[in-house]
Amino acid sequence: MRVAAIDCGTNSIRLLIADVADGEITDVVRRMEIVRLGEGVDRTGRLSDEALARTRAALQAYESEISGLGIKKVRMCATSASRDASNAHEFRDMVRGVLGVDPEVITGDEEARLSFTGAVAGLDADPPFLIFDIGGGSTEFVTGVDGVEHAISTDIGCVRMTERHLHSDPPSAAEIAATETDITDAVDAALAAVPGREARTLVGLAGTVTTITALAQGLPGYDASRIHHARVSREAVAKVADELLAMTTAERLALPVMHPGRADVIVGGALILKIVMERSGHESLIASEHDILDGIAFSIA
């Protein structure tokens, strides 16, 4: 069955057109655009007109791909920013007008379930798993063996932390300390709610994790085939995070693996990743290119 899955988060919007058969996904189209839908939401509580316009433009391009391939089964899930915004109805109306389907503003629990499904498919590692997904506005923590057993969504994300604390370029010691305090409190609360320290395998999802994995490997360019299921040590993650913290946005932008839309917020994500590894006690993580987007595709089929 050929399906189209769309994941719209706080920072990026992504499309997966895939053939799903016998529990496996074969990519036809996989795209990602940084639209920063959640820009300013932590401060204003609203989606801005500019953010909605950027998201509309990306969706129009996706609709062209979907209609060109004649796909009938489409599911779009929207996460943190559209949960938090007081004008989420404007977002829903816009999506309906472009795609002809309603976006599902999913709960943190549903987000966790879809992320788990996508992440464990094809993963050759020892359960139980602690899977965490660093988004723009939130980070999800999920534990389980064959399915979700415990899950929690926390209001820490790379965009939210950047807008809340990291205003200097590069960030100051005081800004970093405030961010670390905020993240540590949230991570400790999450790990008290889900038994992540007891998991045998730590799996990290989303752009912060995959970009830092690429940097740790010293890749000359972003190569998903070398990043997917690569194992990275806690020491290597801490080293890359510290290097990113010392750089300006322009210096991060010049890194060959860095997506242009991620350079200004990856420091917030790097601090989340570093602290998750420290507080959970895991010495290494497995990076996954498969995540909630793949889970959405499985759910359609």
Automatic annotation (TrEMBL):
Protein name (record): Hydrolase
Coiled-coil residue windows: none
Entry keywords, A to Z: Hydrolase
Organism of this sequence: Paractinoplanes tereljensis
Annotated Ppx/GppA phosphatase N-terminal domain residues: 16-299
SUPFAM superfamilies given in the database record: Actin-like ATPase domain
Molecular function (Gene Ontology), one example: pyrophosphatase activity
Pfam family, one: Ppx-GppA
Transmembrane segments: none
InterPro entries, sorted: ATPase_NBD (IPR043129), GppA/Ppx_hydrolase (IPR050273), Ppx_GppA_N (IPR003695)
PANTHER family referenced in this protein's UniProt entry, alphabetically: EXOPOLYPHOSPHATASE, EXOPOLYPHOSPHATASE 2
